Amino acid sequence: MTGDNAKRNLEFKPGLEGVPVTLSGISFVDGLNGILEYRGIPITDLANHSSFVETSYLLIWGHLPNEQELKDFEHEIRYHRRIKYRIRDMMKCFPETGHPMDALQACAAALGLFYSRRALDNPQYIRDAVVRLLAKIPTMVAAFDMMRKGNDPIQPRDDLDYSANFLYMLTEREPDPLSAQVFDICLTLHAEHTINASTFSARVTASTLTDPYAVIASAVGTLAGPLHGGANEEVLTMLEEIGSVENVRPYVEKCIETKSKIMGFGHRVYKVKDPRSTILQNLAEKLFEKFGHDEYYEIALELEKVVHEKMGQKGIYANVDFYSGLVYRKLGIPSDLFTPIFAIARVAGWLAHWKEQLNENRIYRPTQIYTGSHNAEYVSLHERPTGNDRDSVNF
Ligand SMILES: CC(=O)SCCNC(=O)CCNC(=O)[C@H](O)C(C)(C)COP(=O)(O)OP(=O)(O)OC[C@H]1O[C@@H](n2cnc3c(N)ncnc32)[C@H](O)[C@@H]1OP(=O)(O)O
Ligand SMILES: O=C([O-])CC(=O)C(=O)O
Prior knowledge:
Layout: H1 3-7, E1 27-30, E2 35-38, E3 41-42, H2 43-49, H3 52-61, H4 67-78, H5 85-92, H6 100-115, H7 123-148, H8 162-171, H9 177-190, H10 197-206, H11 212-223, H12 231-242, H13 248-258, H14 275-291, H15 295-311, H16 320-330, H17 338-359
Helix pairs in contact: 2-9, 3-9, 3-17, 4-7, 5-7, 6-7, 6-11, 7-8, 7-17, 8-9, 9-14, 9-16, 9-17, 10-11, 10-17, 11-17, 12-16, 14-16
This protein binds acetyl coenzyme *A and oxaloacetate ion.
């Protein structure tokens, strides 16, 4: 530490590890004991007894809804699923090779063109934004998937619940009850997770008092990265690349030797197996029992075993992204939709944090430790170095 920085007694924590950036009553993680709670309720209880829509209500409004509250919330979401034809037209111009997360980020931001009034002190505006985002994000994900294949998007079905309707919009076939139930549990498991990178991004954006569509668009962009939500798609690519159970050990050894990350493992907070990963693994097994085995599962099991053996003492275990892809694959979902599905679920958590941020807002504006020079010379254009000479000059 030098000069001014030392005087101000600043200590840099890379990745803000261990630095509290907000007070929050939304969710809780105990990373040493593998505990996750939403509003104090253990994740296993919500996975076993709740639904994604009910859990979203819990996260956003702070309590479990009574019968009427749940009915009204479900009803509102059901009837806001349609998207403007202009958004569909916009999507038609997207390249079909584009990643669905990029399409989703653009569409989430585009919602602001229609609904952004920034009436953040109006409870009805908040309610409408919550309902619209929860209702329309799945429709946009499914519509992009249909359109990139050259098909018209499938209109949402008002008689289907949240998860069954999404699966229907992907295939134009009503899902069987087990698939819809498993998918709904997946959404519940992914709905919220304290101050992870995308939620932090949502809160920073929210703190400027911009509109909720910008908040969600910024969070979607952050979730997409392979160190965060994007890892679920990368896991499948990795399992494909490993190809067989025999290749697992050499693959892990090579990763250790080259210091490469093994996708779906490790976590800033969990130093044991992520509790969501255990539930997702059970869900995958349920699907295999009913719909047949997946050859990648044996590879995944061996990978988990070898990573545990070699890296368990460092606290590196399977995270939420490790088994989710195997569940979605069994449901027939293409792997580049895995992260958009994560986003569909996490919209609930992001909205809860948006609301909480607005309740006691102060703009996020942390500090930095400056490592550059002062009073540097302005070198005129024709005197500046070219090509390799540049390395020798300190800009
Ligand atoms: C929804 C989610 O976001 S869950 C996380 C999804 N991301 C992934 O699965 C990608 C793989 N995992 C990772 O990159 C990391 O574990 C993260 C990003 C999740 C957490 O990162 P951090 O808390 O910053 O841990 P960091 O990357 O510093 O790792 C600490 C040590 O463990 C090692 N490590 C952590 N995760 C892994 C991994 N997946 N494979 C191999 N080594 C790992 C690091 O190399 C580092 O070792 P070192 O101390 O010898 O240098
Ligand atoms: O908490 C994190 O850093 C990442 C994570 O597991 C999540 O966002 O679900």
